[in-house]
Each structure stands twice: as C-alpha cells, then as structure tokens.
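Final report, closing paragraph on structural work. Over the funding period we assembled a curated collection of sequence-structure pairs, and we close with a single example.
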Amino acid sequence: MDKNRLGESSCEEDKANLKLLGPVATFFTLIKGFVCTGILYLPKGFVNGGWGFSIFSLVFTACLSYYSSLLILEVRLKTKSKSYTECGEKVFGNKGRIIVNIPLAASQIGFVCAFLYFILENCTNIVNYALGISISRNLIALIWLAIISSFSLVRRIEIFAPAHLFANIMVIITLSVVITYGISNMV
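Its predicted structure, as stored:
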C-alpha cells in the first residue's frame, strides 16, 4: 500500500513539474522528428521512382493525408476527445482503443526503424568512405544502439534542448545543401 502511494505521489509530482512545449518548439520538434528524414530521403526516392511516379505519389499522399486529418479532426470535435485512442474508444468502445493503438504503435516503430536505418547508412558511409576505416555495419549498428538506448534513460527531455537547437540548425544546413545540389544537377 505504501509503495502504491509512493508511486502515485511521484507520478503526481512528475505531472506537476511537467513543462509543455510551446507551439514553435512543438513545430520544430515535429519537423525534425517526422519530416526531416522524409525530406532527406526524397531525392533518392525521385531517383528510384522517376519524376512522373514520384510527383504523382507525393501529391496523392499529401491529399490523402490532408483528407484523413480533416476526418480525424471532425471525429475529435464530435466526440470531444483529447487523443486518437480516446476517439477510438468513444466511437467503438474498448475494441476501438485497440484498433487505434495498434496502427499508432506500428507507425512509431516504422518511424524509429527508418530513423535508425538513416543514421546507420550515413555513419557507415562516413566511417568507411570518408574516413577510410573498414568497420562492419553490424558493429556500427551495435555502437549506435548502445548510444541511443542510453538516451532513453533520461527522464527530463528538456535536458536535450541545446542538442535540439543544434539539430534544427544542422537540418536547415543539410536541407540547403540538398536543395542547392538538386537544383545545380537539374540545371
């Protein structure tokens, strides 16, 4: 019983001390987390898919995402829900909660896998080609797994604020380089 109370009070203290991101910080966090890997993979996607198919796919996916977002917002307003899970639960009960949580978990796993693959490919290229050191891709993956896993032990994400700022600056620089390189190759 005492353990329960201790657990509850520490959870309540965590909630009281929680700092929410402002709109600007949330925007840059979402851009960095979801859009950046997509943008950085986009040129390779155009090379693999060709201009016609890639442009069609990009526009179709954007329209589908926009329409889906409008539907989700409509359901949220009608159910007065605060989350996707709550929407599913209010519309379909406990089965709705499960139906919503499974794709959410799958999409998060997909984002993480894409991000880890992106890091692994870039680090492998840097180590093997730029530095001229021959290291196994599996060893590089294990090193990055240890580094990234250790970050999950940090409970307060605001500790990473300087790293977030540096990452945003690097994303802007990288995006500028990719656009400049792409335009110079098209001309």
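Residues 1-9 have pLDDT under 50 and may be disordered. The helical segments are 2-17, 23-49, 51-79, 84-92, 94-130, 137-151, 161-186. We thank the funder for supporting this effort.
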